[in-house]
Amino acid sequence: MDTNQHSSEGLQRNLKNRHLQLIAIGGAIGTGLFLGSGKTISLAGPSVLLTYIIIGFFLFFVMRAMGELLLSNLEYKSFTDFTHDILGHGAGFFVGWTYWFCWVVIGMADIIAITGYFQYWFPNIPLWLPGLFCIIVMTTLNMLTVKLFGEMEFWFALIKVIAILSLVCIGFYLVVTGFENPTSGEKASLTHLWAREGGIFPNGINGFFSAFQIALFAFLGIELVGTAAAETKDPYENLPRAINSIPIRIIIFYVLALTVIMTVTPWDMVNPKVSPFVNMFTLIGIPIAASLINLVVLTSALSSANGGMFSTGRMLYGLAQNEAAPKIFGKLNINGVPSPALLFSCSFLFIGMILTYLEGDVMNVFTIVTTIANIGFIFVWSMILLAYIKYRKIRPELHAKSIYKMPGGVVMAWTCLAFLAFALYLFSLDENTLNGMLFSPIWFATLGIIYLIKFRKE
Q1: Residue 306 in contact with residue 314, Cβ under 8 Å?
Q2: Top-level CATH class of 2-455?
Q3: Are 316 and 100 in contact (CB under 8 A)?
Q4: Engineering a disulfide at 109: which of 42, 90, 289, 369 sits with its beta carbon 3.0 to 4.6 angstroms away?
C-alpha cells in the first residue's frame, strides 16, 4: 500500500541544477567519443571535425524541440509522455519501448567498452569479470535514491570534463613548443589538419560520410537531460540552461579535443582499434599519463552505463504509467526509485558480457551494438520532431506563451527530419551498418505484434 501511495506521488524532484548540468554533459560526452573516435578519424581524417559539427548542429535543434514540449506541460516526465499525449497511444508505446531497448543496447556497448579498458591494464583478465562487477555495483547504487544517481553522474562527468580540458591544454602546449614525437619524429603542428596527403578529405567524400555512424553514436544520450528534467527542482530555469549549453560543449569536447589529437598525432597514425585519447599519450612517451587517461575513459563508460540504467528504469516507469507496460514497472520503492523497472532493465546488460565473451574482439562487438542503437535513436529523435510539428498545429496557444520556443520552428523540425533520413541513407551504404539496419525491422515488427495483441480489442 505504501508503495502504491508513493507511486501516485510520482518521481521525486531531488536533482539540483549542478546535477542536471553534469548529466547533460555526461550525455554529450559518450563512450563513442573516447572509444569510437579513433575509427572515425581513420575513416574521415581531419574532416571528422566537420562530421561532429554537423551532427551536433542538428541534434541541438532536436533538443530545443524536446525542451519546448517538456516545458509546455510539467506533467510530462519524459518525451515518451508527450509523444503518447500528442501523437497517440501507439506512438508512445513504440517510442518508449524503442528508447528502452536502445539504452539496454548502449548499456551492453558500455559493458563491452569497460572490458576493453580493463584489458589495457590486465590483458589476461576474464572477459566477463569487469562487466559483472560494474553491473552489480551500479545497479545497487541506482536502487537507493535519485539524488545518489545525480551525485555519481556529477563526479563521473566532472572527471570527463577535467580530462578533456587537460588534454586540450596539454595539446596546445605541445603544438606551441614544437613537440617532436619520439616514435615517428613528427612535430606537433596544426598543419597536420590540412597538409598531410589528401588534405582535409584524405579518403574523399565517401570516407567523410562513412564516419557518421560512429560519430552519431557519440551523441546518443544527449537527450538524457530531458529524462532527468522530471526530477529537477526548477525545470523552467535548469532545463533551458542545460540544453542551451550543448553547442559550447560540442565545440570544446569534440572539436577541440579531436583537433588536439590530430595535431599531436597525425590522423594517419591514429590506431582505429584503440582509444585515441590513450593512444596520444602513449605515442608522445608518457605511459603513466596514458594509464591515467585510460582510467578517465573507463569512468566515461561507467558514466554512460550509469545514465543508461537511470534512463531505462524511468522509461519503463513512464510506460507503465501509460498502461503500455506491466503495472509492476510503475511501482516505486521507499526512496522514490522505480526499482522493478530498474532491475528488469539491468538484467539485460549481462547479454553484453556474453557477446563479448563469445566474439572475443571488443571493437567488433562494439561496432555491431552501436549500429543497432543508432537506428533506434534516429527513430526516437524523429518522433520527437513529429510530436513538435503536431503540437504546433493543435496547441498554438501553448506555443504562443512558451518561454522556450524552438528556433526555426516547424521549418527547422522538417529540416532536422531530412537530415536524420539522410543519416539512415548513409548507413545503408556501409556493409556493417546495413546489417544493423536489416535487424531493426525485426524489433519494430515484434513491437507491432505485441501492441496489436494487447491493445487491439481496446
Answers
A1: no
A2: mainly alpha
A3: yes
A4: 369
Measured CA to CA, the distance from residue 96 to residue 38 in angstroms comes to: 32
Torsion sign across C-alpha atoms 126, 366, 103, 354: negative
Q: Which three cell numbers stand for residue 306?
A: 550509469
Burial class of residue 103, CB neighbours in 10 A (0-12, 13-18, 19+): buried
pTM for this prediction: 0.82
Please list the residues that pair with 15 across neighbouring strands. 232
CA 281 from centroid of its chain's CA atoms: 25
CA 323 to each of CA 16, 227, 428: distance values in angstroms, whole numbers, following the listed order? 30, 19, 35
Cα gap 183→197, rounded to integer Å: 20
The C-alpha atoms of residue 236 and residue 403 are separated, in whole angstroms, by 8
For residues 111, 112, 116, 118, the Cα torsion angle rounded to the nearest 10 degrees is 20
348 Cβ partners below 8 Å, 6+ apart?
A: 104, 107, 108
Query: How far, in Å, CA of 175 to CA of 266, rounded?
Result: 12
Going by C-beta distance under 8 Å and a sequence separation of 6 or more, which residues neighbour residue 210?
Answer: 43, 44, 203, 426, 429, 430
Contact 56, 265 (CB under 8 A): no
Distance between alpha carbon 405 and the CA centroid of its chain, in Å? 24
Buried b or exposed e, range 158-182, using 16+ CB within 10 angstroms: bbbbebbeebbebbbebbeeebebe
Domain chopping of the chain, boundaries? 2-455
Q: Helix (H, G, I), strand (E, B), or coil: what is residue 439?
A: helix
The radius of gyration computed from the CA coordinates of the chain, to the nearest angstrom, equals 22
> Cα–Cα distance between 311 and 100 in angstroms, integer?
8
Backbone angles phi and psi of 180, in degrees to 5:
-105, 125
**Cell triple for 203:** 579518403
Q: Give Cα 223 distance to the centre of its chain.
A: 8
Residue 109's contacts (CB-CB under 8 Å, 6 or more residues apart) are 31, 217, 352, 366, 369, 370, 373
pLDDT the model gives residue 3: 37
Q: Are 261 and 277 in contact (CB under 8 A)?
A: yes
One-letter amino acid for residue 185 of the chain: G
Mean pLDDT per segment of 10 residues, for the chain of length 458 residues?
40 59 63 71 88 90 92 82 89 89 81 77 78 81 72 78 81 84 77 85 86 78 65 74 79 84 84 75 71 78 76 80 84 82 85 65 66 87 95 92 91 96 86 75 90 73
What's the rounded Cα separation, in Å, for the pair 441 and 437? 8
- Residue (of 149, 293, 297) closest to 228 by Cα position: 149
Grid cell at residue 281: 599519450
**Angle between the N-to-C axes of helices 287-321 and 129-142, in degrees from 0 to 180, rounded to the nearest 10:** 50
Neighbours of 136 (CB within 10 A): 11
